[in-house]
Amino acid sequence: MNAALEARSKLIRTEREKVELWREVSNAWRQISRQGEKNISRLGICTTEFKILRILKEEGQTPMARLSDVTVLTQPAITSFVDKLEDQGLVRRDRDHEDRRVIRISITRKGRSLFRRGLRIHSRFVSGLLSELNDAELSRFSSIMKKLSSVEVPSVR
Asked: How do the pLDDT tens digits run along the chain, 157 residues long?
């Protein structure tokens, strides 16, 4: 942790200071996300398409509606992403045998291969990024993130 940030961490008490800290966290997250997206884009896909491949790799053949739910994207958006993946030969569409209205998506051999390459790229990126933190910092960071993700803050009007 740099000295300026360390010094500031002791001074964050007011609402304004907390908002400024949140801005720093948001900016850092945006920068890190952009770097991750840039790495995945070297594969010729975007991070959402990579996420779809991950879901298909983990869950197997999956209905379009499930992809929509898991990614929190609309059906038309998922259709557009699946179209692009299908055009590249990374996924395949199949009609459900019991309900022809249901379209199931599965990852192809080419899609699995690309996903594995992407996972290696992403793993090296994350490892490199987190290598800047020592064991105590990693543990504290994990605890803080878990705590923040479990906080239920009521809507403020």
From this structure: 556 555 555 566 788 888 888 899 999 999 999 999 999 999 999 999 999 999 999 999 999 889 999 999 999 999 999 999 999 999 999 987 888 788 899 999 999 999 999 999 999 999 999 999 999 999 999 999 999 888 888 777 7
**Rounded to whole angstroms, how far apart are CA atoms 42 and 120?**
13
Q: Are 4 and 21 in contact (CB under 8 A)?
A: no
Instruction: For tokens 């105590």, name the residue.
Output: 136
The token duo for 42 is: 């070297």
107 touches 90 (CB < 8 A): yes
The CATH number fitting domain 45-130, selected from 1.10.1740.10, 1.10.10.10, 1.10.530.10, 1.20.1600.10: 1.10.10.10
Distance CA 22, CA 44 (A): 33
What residue spans define the domains of the chain? Answer: 1-41, 45-130
d(CA 49, CA 146): 26
Enter the tokens of residue 145.
Answer: 């993130």
